[in-house]
Design brief:
DNA-binding, mainly alpha, two-stranded antiparallel ribbon, two-stranded parallel ribbon, about 5% strand, 5 helices
Length: about 110
DNA sequence: TGGTTGACGGTGG
DNA sequence: TCCACCGCCAACC
């Protein structure tokens, strides 16, 4: 497991239920604000059920993709009390998880 | 070692 | 508001 991937996974696992974070936010907290692309790759490769990858959405509240299981992602988010419509998360600004400063920023 | 892909972000039309 | 194009970083072939 690469340092970056581990960092991304750690961040995603910190996302509380009923909240969502964008790939950009996760990447930023992972230490690479411009590596949101890689975050998507890590997510795709991530098969760990302990990682709530369904809480990671695209910018603007868009669901983005989910390995072809976008429907499932939408269902999981709805199960957490999130309002989802089509490929969009309603009240995104309110349910968006805002990560504080990275703890013990070690590079 | 180099090139392409991808669960994307942002801007423009 | 939705669709298309360009730019980006890391992983895989």
């Amino acid at each position: 497991m690469d340092r970056f991937a581990a960092r991304v996974v750690a961040v995603v696992r910190q996302i509380p239920p009923g909240r969502v974070a964008t790939y950009g936010d996760v990447a930023a907290r992972a230490g690479r604000p411009r590596a949101w692309r890689a975050v998507g790759n890590v997510m795709r490769a991530c098969g760990d059920a302990t990682v709530p990858c369904h809480r990671v959405v695209a910018a603007g509240g868009r669901l983005g993709g989910y390995g072809g299981h976008e429907l499932l992602k939408r269902h999981l988010l709805a199960a957490e009390g999130l309002r989802v419509t089509g490929t969009r998360v309603l009240r995104f600004a309110e349910v968006r998880w805002r990560p504080g400063h990275a703890p013990g920023g070690r590079r």
